[in-house]
Design a protein that fits this description.
2 copies of one chain form a homodimer. Helices cover 52% and strands 4% of the residues of chain A. Chain A is mainly alpha-helical. Chain A has a single domain (7-138), classed as Winged helix-like DNA-binding domain superfamily/Winged helix DNA-binding domain (Arc Repressor Mutant, subunit A). A two-stranded antiparallel sheet of chain A has the order 1-2. In chain A, a hairpin with a 6-residue loop joins strand 1 (55-57) and strand 2 (64-66). In chain A, helix 1 crosses helix 3 and helix 2 crosses helix 3. Chain A starts with 6 loop residues before the first helix and ends with a helix. The mean pLDDT of chain A is 96. Chain A binds a DNA duplex (30 and 30 nucleotides) through residues 1-2, 5-7, 27-29, 37-41, 43-44, 46-47, 57-63, 92, 94.
Chain lengths: 139, 139
DNA sequence: ACCGTTGTAACTATTATAGTTACTACTCGG
DNA sequence: CCGAGTAGTAACTATAATAGTTACAACGGT
């Protein structure tokens, strides 16, 4: 069973940690210890979060901080930042169905629109939750 | 990017074909030709659809037919039948976060409930669409 | 009894992921 | 100005699931 990569849950964990810690504490090694993985895994994910404009990292000396308030970061923002699934690509489609068959010819367009509705429903739900809603539960 | 297996889209294609064709025509080879894949792939998926009580297959002579009307088969039924994602398992979670850290200790329970809401939202949308809504579009 | 079919097992190639090692470049404090 | 600690990144490995393939046994009707 193929699941959505744990990059996403690690990214959420990472951002929660940055939100509740002082900036200078938040080195890759510190985060890696809380997540319980290799620091390089964290640095890679931090690179994606930086590209998405969610965090900034102090090169050389280390430490990270948020570029938006936790109220303004949703799970959907994080999900998109780590490229875990692209637009309309949650469901893999079998390739080149037979054009000579009425079903084969039409299945893709007919089914894809339903699948993309389903994907949207999930993403819409992710957009309802902000980082701040999570961090209050660690107090 | 990990996507949900094309077993699902192939299963939907297969059931559409069974719904619009006469039972005796629906051999594995015939379906495989429409889907454009190897017959064994179809037989494996048919095995799952049988286990789920959606179709019956005539052994020896070949051919398949639905055990429910197309109005009573939803995309969610098919999605569950092909075991493409289990309950609450759409999102992979990183393992063994550090219990010594307030974030590490709580992240799983806090985040999992949001993620399972998101997964439910998607599945709820899949349950809205029936096989008959698809097949009318092939007429 | 034969032919076409289903049901499976076994193997391969492909793909994405997660973790690891190693190295470079950067910043600051001494 | 140098060294300690950190970030950034490339390269490699192990793992896992998938999709396709070959092969073969079992079945059923003509």
């Amino acid at each position: 069973m193929k699941q959505i990569s744990s990059r996403f849950s690690i990214a959420v964990h990472t951002l929660c940690l940055i939100a509740v810690s002082s900036s200078e504490d938040c080195t890759g090694d510190y985060i890696a210890e809380s997540v319980n993985t290799n620091p390089v895994v964290i640095r890679r994910i931090m690179g994606l979060l930086k590209k998405a404009g969610l965090v900034e990292v102090r090169p050389g000396v280390g430490g990270a901080s948020l570029l938006k308030t936790p109220e303004d970061i949703t799970l959907l923002d994080i999900y998109r930042a780590v490229h875990v699934i692209e637009d309309n690509q949650l469901f893999r489609f079998h390739e080149d169905p037979n054009e000579g068959c009425p079903v084969g010819r039409n299945i893709e367009s007919v089914l894809q629109s339903e699948l993309s509705e389903a994907q949207s429903a999930m993403e819409h739900r992710l957009a309802q939750t902000t980082l701040s809603q999570l961090t209050v539960k660690f107090k």
